Each structure stands twice: as C-alpha cells, then as structure tokens.
Amino acid sequence: MPSRPTKELEIFPNPTPARDYHIHMEVPEFTCLCPKTGQPDFATLILDYIPDKKCIELKSLKLYIWSYRNEGAFHEAVTNRIVDDLTAVLKPRYLRLAAKFFVRGGIFTTIVAEHRKSGWKPLPAVDLGKFEGQSTTRG
C-alpha cells in the first residue's frame, strides 16, 4: 500500500537521554502553496535538535513534510507551525528550524525559528582546533 501524507508525527524513546547530542536533518524537497497566487513554493528545511526523552521517526517526518504540498501558507506561518508541531510531540531540549525558500519574485527568503526547553542550558563548546593536512612522507 503506498504511503500517504499525514500530520501524524511518530516518536521513539531517546536511546541516550543522559547526554546532550545534536541531530541534524536536511529536507531539500519541501513544498507548499503561496496563499496569494496558489503557485508552489519550494524550500530546503534544515532541522537541528537536541532530544530530551524522544526522537522523531524519519518516515513519519517525511510524510508530515509531504502533507504541506497542497496547502497554502505564508513562509513565516508554515515554518513556525512546523516548529510548534515538532516541539509539541518531541518536547526537545532545543530545536531550530531554518526554512530556506527558493527565489520568488527575485527574493530569497529564509525563516529561522527556535525552541528552548525552560531551564535548559547547553554545555560549553569545546574547541578542538584543526589539524594540518598530513604529508604522505616524513621529513
């Protein structure tokens, strides 16, 4: 039976809830409709989150994203709705969505929306520096 778009998001237990770790996803095929013209809008969604007790199941995310294909939505509204829906089901420590819409009328639009769990503070970043390229000979 073929898959169908749905707004239902499935989750699974975070396999390592004691650790902050970063999940990064890129969705290059997001589409919705311009609410003014009905023409398609195309975007790449960049989703980054630090899970708490739950993680998103990828197929359900794909079907959820697909569900916007025939819906009219302003860029700002659809980006924030996706953040709200993901936050409601995941309750993550941190979530950030950047929606990079393709050119429309000569204008590229990027919308960035974030959620932070109340009281959560990220650990300080560790700067490991960079290693120089290795030569194939010793000298």
TrEMBL record:
Its job: Catalyzes the NADPH-dependent reduction of 7-cyano-7-deazaguanine (preQ0) to 7-aminomethyl-7-deazaguanine (preQ1).
Catalytic activities: 7-aminomethyl-7-carbaguanine + 2 NADP(+) = 7-cyano-7-carbaguanine + 2 NADPH + 3 H(+)
Taxonomic source organism: Nitrosospira lacus
Alphabetized UniProt keyword annotations: Cytoplasm, NADP, Oxidoreductase, Queuosine biosynthesis
Major site of localization recorded for this protein: cytoplasm
Record's protein name: NADPH-dependent 7-cyano-7-deazaguanine reductase
Superkingdom, taxonomy of origin: Bacteria
Family: Belongs to the GTP cyclohydrolase I family. QueF type 1 subfamily.
HAMAP family attached to this UniProt entry: QueF_type1
Active site: C34 (thioimide intermediate), D41 (proton donor)
Pathway: tRNA modification; tRNA-queuosine biosynthesis
Keyword Cytoplasm attributed: yes
Keyword Zinc among record annotations: no
InterPro entries noted in UniProt: GTP-CH-I_C/QueF, NADPH_dep_7-cyano-7-deazaG_red, QueF, QueF_type1
Biological process, per Gene Ontology: tRNA queuosine(34) biosynthetic process
GO molecular function: preQ1 synthase activity
CC per GO annotation: cytoplasm
NCBIfam families: QueF-II
Xref: PANTHER family: NADPH-DEPENDENT 7-CYANO-7-DEAZAGUANINE REDUCTASE
Subcellular location: Cytoplasm
E.C. no: 1.7.1.13
Enzyme class: oxidoreductase
Residue sites binding substrate per the record: I56, E57, L58, H75, E76
